[in-house]
Amino acid sequence: MAAHTTSKTINIKLKIWRQESVKDAGRFEQYSLDNVLTNMSFLEMLDVLNEKLLKEGVRPVEFESDCREGICGTCSLMISGQAHGPVRGATTCQLYMRSFENNDTITIEPWRAKAFPVVRDLVTDRRAFDRIQMAGGYTGAKTGPHADANAILVPKDLADRAMDAAACIGCGACVAACPNASASLFTSAKIAQLSLLPQGHPQRKERAIRMVGQMDKEGFGSCSNLQECEAACPKKISIQNIAIMKREYLFAALAANFREGMGSADGGA
Amino acid sequence: MVPLKRLFTSTLGRKYLMGASGFALVLFIVVHLLGNLTLYTGSGDAINTYAAKLDALGIGKLILELGLGLTILLHVVTAIQVTYSSKVARAVQYDAPKSKGGPTKNTVTTRNMIITGLVLLVFIVVHLIQFRFGPKIEDGYTANVSGVMVHDIYRVVVETFLDIKNVIFYVGSMFFLGFHFRHGFWSAFQSLGMLNPRWSKPIYCLGFIIAILLTVGFLFMPIYIYATQGGAQ
């Protein structure tokens, strides 16, 4: 029998954040779960816990998930002080119980940021990211019918950098892991992705100003260049994008002050 | 569209100001170390000549001092704003946050730049009281350098560092300078959007090397004075 099909079982203790609503203060509750299969994913373990809680007449723990294959960015848990748990480059749903030891105590908290209010238990309202995206994370040009793949030639290195930035799934781990709750990595990935490509180039100044403005309005903190966001990002997005955002915004804001007529061509913005 | 005021009060703008003022302070502190290396000559003539040349700048020196003071003020004010906005943004703390390692620069000293910075601010105030506003020519601190009577700043230095308390305070403060500088130097480049992957590591290493040179260079001055002049008493 292959090694990966044999599953050990472990007993774990869980310390989970329970909060009724945005207004509730919230508190930690302790649970113990025995005979957890180590080949289960972290979310499957929570499903098992919730079945147990339902049988006991306790309200199940609310958490978010969707694709459960690491591409949608819906799952979002702070696991023992680390966004998405101890494994780098993985979302919570791609974390397996084999990453834990027998008798471990695992603390589970929601993302903590003023801009991400807790809706209930481990579920946070991440619409702040949607609003940043809507502020300028697109190209305003009408694209018409599907264009020929190589109609616009993009140098390989730029295409690669844009693709790396586009890998962002908007889960919010960067905000959660940042000691300042800054949304710089998310916002910069969107700005860089579009600004590096010819299609996004014409609106780059307006995009930087609008998206940074919205990011500040949402109440995220400042970037202190600690690079913890890159460490926590399930897609390992580089803070190189933050450097791109800094210069995009600086040049855009200065140009807006010293050159007339900029900003009126708001192509769909 | 973006007034300059809004540019420099945005979360990015504050970091532009912090990075730019940081660069100015780097320049000052490197020049300050180079000037003070004259102390290692073992006699007061070199540093007294250097100080006399600075004094000869007259109004120019005053402008430089004011500029330096305002730069420090800008650095401190933006630092307090950035720290405050971050505290507000993360109102509820995690139970026990843990770094995920990898590329992170998240350590006790990098997370607490405001603390190392405030220690350095206290140091600057004490340092100014002891030297800039310390004993003057009128107090009889005069030296004769090639026939000209100048302010004997060397005597102020020696008298300060004959007190072991001052030696300990100055040496201790220089470790804070080292840690502040190690993150600050690279960070200023990143904050101003001047980094790309090719330059990130070399710039970080350069900052690390300058941090060590500054710390060691400054740190041994009080010890050197205490060791060489203290024995004479």
Q: Would you summarize the structure shown here?
A:
The complex is a heterodimer of chains A (269) and B (233). Chain A is an alpha+beta fold. Chain A has helices at residues 42-55, 127-136, 156-166, 173-177, 184-195, 204-217, 228-232, 240-258, and strands at 9-18, 27-37, 78-79, 82-83, 105-109, 118-120, 123-124.
What does this structure look like?
The complex is a heterodimer of chains A (269) and B (233). With 269 residues, chain A is α+β, with helices and mostly antiparallel strands. Helices cover 33% and strands 13% of the residues of chain A. Chain A folds into 2 domains: 3-120, Beta-grasp domain (Ubiquitin-like (UB roll)), CATH 3.10.20; 126-258, Alpha-helical ferredoxin (Fumarate Reductase Iron-sulfur Protein, Chain B, domain 2). Chain A has 8 helices and 7 strands, in the order ββαβββββααααααα. In chain A, strand 3 (78-79) and strand 4 (82-83) form a beta hairpin. In chain A, helix 3 runs antiparallel to helix 5 and helix 6 packs across helix 8 (240-258). The termini of chain A are far apart. Chain B is mainly alpha-helical and 233 residues long. Chain B has one domain (10-87, 112-230). Chain B has a two-stranded antiparallel ribbon with strand order 1-2. In chain B, helix 2 crosses helix 4 and helix 2 (11-36) crosses helix 8. The mean pLDDT of chain B is 93. The interface between A and B is large, with 58 and 49 residues.
Strand order of the largest sheet of chain A: 2-1-5-3-4
Q: Give the overall average pLDDT of chain A.
A: 92
Please name the two chains that share the biggest interface, counting residues whose Cβ lies under 8 Å from a Cβ on the partner chain.
A-B, 58 and 49 residues
Distance between the termini of chain B: 68 Å
**Percentage of residues in DSSP E strands of chain B:** under 5%
| Structural domain count of chain A | 2
Count of helical regions of chain A: 8
Radius of gyration of chain A: 21 Å
CATH class group of the largest domain in chain A: Mainly Alpha
General form of chain A: elongated
